[in-house]
Design goal:
This protein is an alpha+beta fold. Helices cover 59% and strands 8% of the residues.
């Protein structure tokens, strides 16, 4: 039995969770918060989540975990058979995470957690996101799924990350940067109707309350 370790408010945790549910792979979940304690670092080298436990072995980094799951559970594949098509799906996942989510993440401290972000950072993020959104518009297919006609790993990533980019940019700039890609709103609505994503949304709400309670105790 696979054990997915992390917390349900994490986009990267939910990306893997959605993959497992969509493929009907049996798995357990363990609530694990990021930590630099030795016992935690023994399970995930830099303290990040999610990580996957396979027997006595742990595997870190969400995309590596996703690739492992595809290799070990080829039924209901979420990567195309054709090598170039597979690479295009991987390209889209990488792009969404590196050039949209990771850039927008620099805003999260103020947008979601009550901190502050410098005006310089806001300007840098605005410039980088503008470039990223334009490129995403060229890469995404929305026909009807983000990478083409079939549901893939790119959808598991996109439905987790795109709404957060929307929320962060609305909060920080007063506008949704992804409005420049008009298909996004309808796409996210369709993805949110999937049973796997509905379960993820329910679990995220519960976990977010736990996070708030945990923060209040610190």
């Amino acid at each position: 039995m696979l054990k997915l370790c992390g917390f349900a408010a994490s986009n990267y945790y939910n990306k893997v969770k959605m993959q497992l549910m969509e493929k009907s792979v049996p798995f357990e979940e363990e609530l694990v918060w990021p930590s630099q304690q030795d016992e935690h670092l023994a399970r995930t080298p830099i303290g990040k989540i999610p990580f996957l436990e396979i027997g006595n072995t742990q595997l870190a980094e969400s995309q590596v975990i996703s690739e492992y799951i595809e290799d070990v559970y080829p039924e209901k594949p979420l990567l195309p058979k054709d090598p170039l098509a597979r690479a295009k799906v991987r390209e889209l996942v990488e792009f969404i995470e590196l050039h949209l989510e990771l850039v927008a993440r620099r805003l999260y401290r103020e947008a979601f957690f009550g901190g502050t972000v410098s005006d310089e950072t806001k300007k840098e993020v605005e410039k980088e996101l503008a470039k990223g959104v334009k490129a995403f518009k060229r890469l995404a297919q929305f026909s009807p799924f983000v990478a083409g006609p079939e549901f893939t790993l790119a959808d598991c990533a996109a439905v987790q990350h795109l709404p957060v980019v929307t929320m962060a940019t609305k909060k920080m700039y007063g506008r949704d940067f992804l409005e420049e890609v008009p298909q996004v709103a309808a796409y996210v609505k369709e993805m949110n109707a999937r049973p796997s994503q509905q379960k993820i949304a329910e679990d995220r709400k519960v976990n977010s309350r736990l996070m708030a309670e945990r923060s209040a105790k610190k």
